[in-house]
Amino acid sequence: MFSIVRCLTLGLRFLTLTAFFSSANLHAKGFEDSMAERTRPCTACHGDQGRAGPDGYYPRLAGKPAGYLYNQLKNFAQGRRHYGLMTRLVDPLSDAYLREIAAYFSELKLPYPAATQSATRIPPAVLQRGQQLALYGDAARRVPACTQCHGDRLTGVQPQVPGLLGLPLDYLNAQLGAWQTHQRQALAPDCMAQVVERLNSSDLVAVASWLSTQSLPQDTSPSTTFAARGVVPLPVCGSAPELKAMP
Amino acid sequence: MKAQRIGLWLAGIGLLICAALVVDNFFDGVDVSTLATSPATTTPSAEIIDKGRYLIQAGNCIACHTARGGAIMSGGRAIETPFGTVFSSNLTPDPATGIGLWNAQHFWRAMHHGRSRDGRLLVPAFPYNHTTLITRDDSDAMFAWLIHQPAVVQARPPHTLQWPLGTQAALAVWRSLYFKPGLFKPDATRDAEWNRGAYLVQGLGHCAACHSPRNALGASGAVNDLSGGLIPGVNWTAPSLMDNAQTGLADAPLQDIQTLLQTGKSGHHHTSGPMAEVVQYSTQYLQPADLQAMAVYLKSQARLTQGKPGPTTSMAQRPVLPDVQTRGAALYDKHCAECHGEQGLGIAGAYPALAGHRAVLQTDTTNLVQNVLYGGYPPATAGNPRPFGMPPYILTLDDKDIAAVLTHLRTQWGNRAPEVTPLEVNRIRASQGG
Question: What is the ipTM of this complex?
Fold first, then answer.
């Protein structure tokens, strides 16, 4: 009698254990040792494959230049950008791993959605002012065109300069505003801060508005060379020293 | 007439106490008028300098003496205390704002007596109750490394301690109560390895600075008191290293303890919060022999008898409401099961098992809540260079959700720990400004 009970108990235990292991194996099957798996903490907010979060505050990561992404991770770690959740995530990570994470997202080629902002909801004068500043700058105030650094298609320039298209208006406004109030900084000398300093708030809103209404060109990848130099000399950029080497 | 006599007596007693405080604090027996005479400190060898670097790492000096984005050891990091903010000193050899004018005697006096170059009493956020234990040779080597680093001009912002807590008089009183200079005394009944571990843990490692409870005047326990406590300011709980139910140190193989300190991860356990920082800046760089010595010492301090049998009984007292159970189970399936498994078994090498995991079952849920609210990666170390991580849930789950899901994983798969309340979650969320 005793041995039957014992046998049954053992059998049950065996069954439970098998159930445990098979379910563990099921999960192990879905699990892949990959960068996608390792960057789950990123994609939880920035969307699957870093395609951007749904609410406009978590920008796209996919396809951005690796140097730019790495610089941003370091900016959070070193206190030049401020967002507690980002800072806590990057703090324990090594430079080598941050570079690997940046490279991983930069290599993801995902199609861009159409421009998020409809042009019809923005006054034409604002859009025109924004377009003027973005494509031609303002020589009188020594403001370079966006295209001078961010590529003639505004899709960024490898390896350090980000594209400006496909970003939500809220995000663009928040970033330019943060530069104006020194909440967002880049490696010194902070060239973007110098450009923003020469613009007023309505200029910034105009540029952000125009950029957010533009759909991406056929080729969405960052350029490999800078556009021809404009009439306004560029400030020196700590985050993109290669700009200095331009003719 | 009588009142006058009592007054005189009181004044006399007051004077005596003052005199005692002065004697206690200001005659420390270190002559700093001459330069250090030992040739090892005036022209230290490369070996001594390198030993100094190692000891600076063993003391995790870099973590406090480096501000976010600042030059290494140039100070200025704000350390929040219940009494105000203290800023760390610039330990680079800049003459005006750093330790450029110090000699090895001055440095020894800081480490051993907690006093600055000019004799000023230092605030005890600098854990000199621990550094007082280190040997003169170690102090000199640390100084040799520091003085050979690049000088950085960076003045320390003034502390913002509530008056009169930062004053020399208040510090003198505090020191008379809680600080006594003294070297590490080896325990003759223990072997050299145990004593080396004790020296590192009690001295430079200053483990008790977090792993012992602090009293109302901010004093931590004795240097060998590792009974754990809430770390003020940051809201993480340092577990008691003496209570085996909290750490499992008594049962853990030495190698596992060593691996955790070296890589930040051991099996299904990994460091997070302030301990992750310790691994990142300090213990990952320590020699295996020293880590093993620390493990030997720590293991000897863990007691099996202090295990708290509480959880099972309190479970019986307070059954979890059915709607909390349902909510917790649903949230677990949606947010957690993919990595931690339907049966809480985790994925070896990537995600910890929650079934039977000690950190899940702790009575104090502070760290558990921190991990769910803010997610995070274990430290990237040579032994775990590309860690897997956990997303933050502070934006997706509210206090009730997090309480329910934590209650779920504390009551499943054989886990028996008390319910987590939304209030416990809110305490952490509110204190972090998130």
Answer: 0.92
